[in-house]
Amino acid sequence: MIGKTISHYKILEKLGEGGMGVVYRARDTKLDRDVALKFLPPNLAVSQEEIKRFETEGKAVSSLNHPNIATIFDIDEVDDPTTAIKQRYLVLEYIPGGTLKSKLKQFKSEDKRFSFAEVIGYGLQIVDALAHAHRHQIIHRDVKTDNIMLTDEGKVKLTDFGLAKLRGRVQVTKTGSTLGTAAYMSPEQIRGEEADQRSDIFSFGVVLYELVTSQLPFQGEFEAALSYSILNEHPQPVRSLRADIPVALEKIINRCLEKDPAKRYRSADEITKELSNMEQSIGSKSSSMQDKSEENRLIRRRGVRLALGSIAFVVIIGVVSVILFYPESGSNEVNRKSIAVLPFKNLSDSKEDEYFSDGLTEDLIAQLSKISDLRVISRTSVMQFKGINKSIREIAAELNVVNILEGSVRSAGNNVRIVAQLIDATKDDHLWAETYDREMTQIFTIQSDIAFRIATALRSTLTQGERDRIQKKPTENITSYSYYMRGREYYNLYTNEYNEKAVSLFQKSLQLDPQYALAYAGLGDAFAQRVLRFGYPAVWIDSSITYSTKAIALDPTLAEGYKALGLSYASKGWFRRAIEMYNKAIEYNPGATSAIINIGIVKLNTGKFDEAVEWLHKGLQSDPLAVNSYVGLGYAYFSVGDIIKYEETVNKWTILDPNNVHVYIGNSMTAMLQKEYKRAMDEIMKPLSAMPDNVILLSGAGDIQLAMGNLTEAKKYYESVVKKDSLLRSTVTGRLPLLGLGYIMWKGGNHDGARKVFTKIVTNDQKEMGEGNERFSLPLDIACINAIEGKKDEAYKWLQKAVDAGWRYYNWAQVDPMLENLWGDEKFKTIMTFLKNDIDRMRERMMVAEKQ
After folding, report:
1. Active site residue 825
2. Domains plus CATH for the chain?
3. Entry pTM
4. What is the pLDDT of residue 815?
5. Average pLDDT for residues 23-48, to the nearest whole number?
6. What is the rounded CA–CA span in Å between residue 327 and residue 317?
7. Active-site residue, from 28, 142, 765, 781
């Protein structure tokens, strides 16, 4: 064909060949421009029905006018002398920059990856093109990186619109372009069902996954394997392949790849909106979030002054008991016996073995953190450097450590090679290095040996108990260990879907080794998170306690078991017992960061803000990059009215995670205390518009509307929450939305209906208190109910119980409509004065401690 002229197109070179035909670069001799000619396969021209469909589709696509869609100039045909069949071809816009697939291959050969800014930029152009086509009732049906061209300037051009419809169900073979196409197909396409715009969205999710990770989410050498994977398997978590991925981008990819079309985005426009928000966030991360306008700074400062300590802790009730909060850094002085274990590189042939290299990293951190003479950076912080191109010196400076352990893992069958080296980052000195070529059954011996070698190199002193705990093998069954490692990998991603995968893997681990204490502790953690993060019934906390207790029975020195049990106890409001368990975890593992931080959170729950800050700072020494640590500290400073420290922590957490929902909640709280309810509502609506089903935010919106006196609006928000969980507490005020509904009934004159609601709340709260729940919100509920009903003596009795349990939010009490019947009483004013003085004393103690 090269050199031939078809109509007025002189063919210059062959550009490529695929399932939809051959493409050539040609010269349009009439308009003096280069074009692309795509000759369709002869099998698409044998049926008049196919020909008519092709022409109709071509006309529709040619009508699209979008900068990111390749233009179709013409459709024509030419006689094929070899087949005596007219061969149809398209005249397309010529795009010289190559495909996105070729760009990916180039990057992989150079061991490079697209930056997240590039991924979002490409993604926006692709999805904007899809949105334009969908608005014109055109479905692409073949979105893949091979069909995404790049101009010389890097601009995206989406090609082959609508052509996939000609193919119908693709027969997948081991080789060829059809296999590549099928890897991007949606489950409904695999099943041969009619595809709509949500099928394009699934394929777009595959493209995003590939751009971020440089690999496809679903893989298989043959049709059956690939089809099964798409229909039944979940892809390897993006974060396990690229730990620094922004949470928002990971959520977009996961939602696009939902197997059920109803769970995906309804339209490409929705994705455009979310990616645009991300693009703005990345582009202004250091300025728009950290350097807020002076007006906003003054608003926030004024709000915190008014708060002095009011309701911030209440936020912790709804959130803290739900989340394992982690820590912040302390002194700038660097401990010479400090170390960070960077994520070990996976050199195995299979990328699926990534869980093993990450698991080894986590296990080495756990082993080293058992040595009280070392300061070891936790997993949360070090995993943020996975895949990041930074020098050892830069990483050590960010983590405030002297020493870095780095290495690689290669597994093959029953054998494993582990290379490890210890580096003094301040001097760039190699302190120790070793290569282990062993059988997989010796993995625990390798871990122990590395820990001991590092302790020796850093001249650390080990007690006999520490030596025994490091040398102890958790299991003799390597397959059971493998399941456990995979389970921890999923658990650490903190999503409902992956938490359920973790549960399944921990259970498989225990089937192979029923005496594996760590696997029981893993189940204890995962079952607790079912309730705390994902809204499962509270009965799962009892299951968490059962499994955590079993772990401790099997290994009374297992820090992970005590931490899991402490989490279960704290979620029940059994604060003293929780602290006891957390302290046991720290006893057996001095570097048990999550236990340290969780003690700080319990202190917040009991109104001991000065003690909370002490524990939070202690934990942050080993986990300096965990955003939730700064959130916990921010709430503590907010609660005592330390304006400067509050703003410092807010700036830190917004830099680490500019889209963190607690930023908006904090701003909403301060606005409420100033009675600037419209601003409070605006702040809560920002995250709520993106998460319309979030019951925590819905309950907060109800609280704001209630404070504004908009009882009808408040009722709508409260009812939407109560339908899902009648005993859920608000993040903004710590109040039960059900109590809000009762208050609205009472104000509306429906006293009988309100009393039924109040009775349910009182019965539940007294039952929980009888079982040991120490939360101050329980007696506060009953105080509010008695205040609403005008039973002042009872109201003050329960209000005092709330104070004794740690309630300190006097500023909110003075604007809380549920306590309005008490506002004018001297007894009420006396209680408020006591609370203010106590807050002032805590703030002074915290300021003294900060100077030491």
Report:
1. no
2. 5-93 (3.30.200.20), 100-283 (1.10.510.10), 338-473 (3.40.50.10070), 695-844 (1.25.40)
3. 0.61
4. 82
5. 79
6. 18
7. 142
